[in-house]
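Following the same procedure, sequence and fold were stored together, as reproduced here.

>
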Amino acid sequence: MRDLFDKSELLQWTEYTMQIVGSQEKNDFGDLLLYLAYSAKTEKLFITVAKAYNLRPMDITGASDPYVRCEQIYQRKRIKLRKTSIKRANLNPVYHECLEFDLALNQIDETNILIQVMDWDRYVLLYQ
């Protein structure tokens, strides 16, 4: 999500679809739909995790128990971690959950948001 502030007007809700890639740089893990907005007045970044689709099955049952982790990283240090709920046995989970991060205007350039799609009963399912 680097350069997102440069690429979009986040003072209004911005739709962002990201391809989920694995550690081997494979691109067949599915997609994640996010909505982002930034409030300059309250200095908060809002990330609404809408849904994921076409996730790769990670359980022996042919499903996954996915959730989404969002980490706010400032100057290479984790500041805040937020998670969605777990959607059991679902390869196309719908979340519609808003995750909120405090983000001062003067910290935007040195802040990264790491978004990971995880499987509840595995260490790491997918990550971006």
The chain has one domain: 4-119. The helical segments are 4-7. The longest strand covers residues 44-53.
